[in-house]
Structure prediction request, 281 residues.
Amino acid sequence: MTEWFVRGKLTDSVPADDRGFQYGDGLFETLAIRGGQPRFWDLHYDRLHIGCERLGLPVPAERSLSSDLQRAVVASDIDIENATAKIIVTAGSGPRGYRRPDELRSVIRIGLYDSVLPGADAFREGVTVRLCQTRLAIQPQLAGIKSLNRLEQVLARREWRDPSIMEGLMLDTDDRLICGTMSNVFICSKDSIATPALSRCGVSGVMRRHIIASLARNGLHCDVRDIELDELYAADEIFLTNSQFGVLPVRRVGDEDSIVGAMTRNVMHIAAAAGVAECAL
Prediction:
């Protein structure tokens, strides 16, 4: 079930001349709604603010956007104890052509979905992932933000239909590990934790940012750097992060097994203590 709202009112249509529909001219945020409240709202709003500035879109006022989201949550028939919200900001309607109107009026749509999470076994025993053939193009201007242009992820997700494979990991065109189709990836080797740098491409996930900061508060350093493919296969442990499920251990990458070890369990414990209840084992 999905419901969409504009300024607190239900809607079921998008104008054909909306630039988000025509050109993917916009961005979005996907938030976990837990107990009727958006989780990590400040982090989501901060990334949306950065994304709007990067794309040259008007930045929605934080108080107004938060109010619109809350109005949608209250008005929705979705179970708001455990739901997913999606905020889409587009450049609004305009004439044909890539040039935006001189008077740009962005449009904000808020969608609410039933939340679908991995089962308890996934958190206890880990998940299986694969390596995608589809590469992420290097484009620093879009790196980190969640623009509406997700065709690379769509093509990557087409590569498998096996329900036992939870996620696909993606490389850039220089064969560096970047992220999953819908998640960020971390590797653990000996006593170190690392996650790919996202200055060239990829999405800088809110849960990724939260985990890096939480590790630092607990005296653990996460190295943000370029990671080559052979490091992924050589890692002692691997885990994924995402705004909806929090932290998921990886037990297998393609044909290679990985252990669900103490470092990943510790990260999950830290996440659970910080309010990500899905990670509580």
User: Anything to note?
Assistant: DSSP finds eight helices and 16 strands in the chain. The chain has two domains: 2-114, 120-279. The CA atoms of residues 153 and 255 lie 22 Å apart.
